[in-house]
Amino acid sequence: MASSARKRRWFTICAITACAALVAVPAGAVSGGTPNPFGVRTMDRLTHQRESAHAHLTASLSDDDDGNESDEIAEGADQFAEARTSPGVVAPGAYGAAWSSLDGLRRAGSRWKNITDLPYNSDDSRYRDYDSNSSGGSGMVTGRMAAMAADNDGYAYAGSAGGGVWRSSTGGGHWTPISDKLPTQATGALTLDTAGRLWLGTGEATTNADAYLGSGVYVLSSPHHGSFSTRSRVGGDELESTTIHQLRFGAGKVWAATSEGVWSHSTMRLSGSWKLEYAPNPDYLPGHSKANDPDAPYKNITNDIAVDPKDPSKVLLAVGWRSGDEYNGFFAQHNGSWQRVTTGLGDLPSDSATVGEVTFAASGDGSRYYAIDQSPKQLANNPDSSLEGIYVSKSGSPFGPWTKTADYHQLAASGSALTTAGYMPGVQAWYNQFLSVDPANADHVYAGLEEVYESQNGGTQWSTVGPYWNFNFPCWNIDPSKQTGDCNPTTHSDQHGIAIGRYHGKPYVYVGNDGGAYKRPVHGSQDADGHATDWTSLNDGTIDTLQYFSVGIGKDLDHGGVSVTGGLQDNGQSELRSNDKVMGSNFGGDGTDTITDTANGCNIAQAYVYLQIQVTQDCAVNDGSWESDPSKATSYSVAPPDNATGEARFVAPMSADAKDSSTWVAGGRHVWVQTHGYAIRSSTEWTNAFDLGEGHTATAVASSGGKVYAAWCGPCNNQGFTRGIAVGNADGTGWHQISLPVEGKVPNRYLSGFAIDPQNADHAYVTVSGFSRQWTEGPGAGVGHVFETKDGGTTWRDVSGNFPDVPADSAVVLPGGGLAVATDLGVVYRGPHTAKWERVGSLPAVAVLQLKIGPDNKLYAATHGRGIYTMPVRELQ
How many whole angstroms separate alpha carbon 135 and alpha carbon 140? Predict the structure, then answer.
């Protein structure tokens, strides 16, 4: 069990960012040989972490020592966004301009090859070691789905968090991407109107750690054919650089609930500007007096719009930031102005403390309205859940009166897997929400939180038809001949999108979650516990929206060729052997950085969040026999001490020395070094090479021939953002901080990666995230994204040239001296004897977070939304 400081750190962030829903069991738990290793152990761990975090989280809400609530609860802890916004606030239009610049570059190389476009089995029986979640029951998975849509002609549409929109003409499966031409691949809302048009609201609105902004709303008039294009955007650029939570229709208008207020537009005439209907704090909108205030991104958040089916001129707005603000609440028009609704709602709360993330759903016949409400007060004070409740308005009007039909206790008693204090239904209700009503039955409702719930009597009774996982239940066992013991397959956890449509005349419910897309019949079957017996995974390998943080490549000594692995958001670590037709998952939870032995691809070090590192020397192959004999475990926990103290970032850096694969460097507050390679078995084998300083945490590390570069930030948010570079030796000698003044040549922005010249360790490059001062209001934002040193870091010069003004995430020096750089919108390359940058291939507008060169002399790109791509290095030389 980790220390209390580590627990506080983990759940302070987990309460406000997209933490792992599927949490790997720590290696320290193995020695006990507990018969039920996954459900009991893991949920017990979560419980203790949540309880330990409670007092710290509550204090953080009012503690001004390190900034205000925005710092602690919002963007300050949203570390993925910190890298892109610090040291200030990014103005609208930044990503659009970057995409235009990137698209205008000359092309280098040929076509990228996607190597992860095949099924990914989270229950692969080959990998049932204790750090795996295999046998949990979610089956075939892909990356997070933010929204779903379906019609009655057998067409289904899946909007992913970072990999665009996909279409199926077979009721799910056999998918085709249909938004690759857009300047963003982040989905917020996806819905069909009564005319059959498909509306896409871009910018994922889950306010989690890896959500991207969007470029507005688009319409596909004939969604059975064709694809979205920039010409299909609705209105002007008013909604660029926002996130869009919901799109609703009424009285000839489309209503958009966005991160910058509620907007409307005609559904008939798609040109012309969007109309701002309501912004609770307009001074914080772009172009207004407080637009550059650090709190600005959280002052105009709107979540949903409920249109009265009997009188579409009556509209109820659900407004508010998940962690609470005085503007939170419900609003309606009265005498020409929007005013807070404080009476007549019945059980539905109206005060700002208890109205947070809200989702509405209306029945097809207009007789019922349903709502889910997440409570900022519960988030701050209740370690079990942030859910206020599920509600029904039996008048059919969104103005009520509303009756509460369920709270988290009732849902926990409905067959839920989340029955342990500290982690119960709605614990992440700010992140997981959907709601939908059977078009043929106003009392038949589906609700999504961490799990999928179904009521067939208007909310009086609920069944957990899609439990979080099956580990807790008596039917589960680790039998490698079965997916999930004697339990029925379930969905992946963390629900985000839902739709109901027909295929061959039969109605189906489609759900989207952190593991992709699933479906079951609307009139499906349940077992005695209320769990559905008929879920089907739609993640058949034709849809690849996997969200990689990292990639590792090594020779496959058993089958020839190479083995490819990588860390993923909420889908563990994927393992692709050279002869695989289906990928397996050998680690669970959030996979972050990874180190792989190029000479033997089964030697792997995989990091869970906050530098919790596991190592294996046989790809973590295990049939589950470790459950009864702990000595048969095939992976080991070797986290550096900064994991226990909470002094590492959510996605913390680590790497092997380029000249000595047995020497590893990892960064938290300290620069940690170990020299036993993949034979490491204990956290005590790490040595502290250098202390970066109190409050500083490593953002990038690299080593070659014993020379180490370490970048850090601290504070890392826009409240006094600082950054720096330390250089020294792996043996602990020669360490010193490089002078990087705020107004120096290296901008005061997040330093994201190093690339060291394999021929000369004093020659290196550093990549810089965020946007230049043209877009970023913050001290020392500067210009440029790639800087070079030839004297071991003492001095740096800007080599950005025509590099697009887009966040740079990592870099690699190619044989021959060329430099490839991963960015939030693709890969760029500069040859060894030129200053001009070129775009590598033609990837969609997807973030590439890491580049590596494999032993097969191919360049590998880990994208955060479209899997792993590769291209021969020779094509860039």
Answer: 11
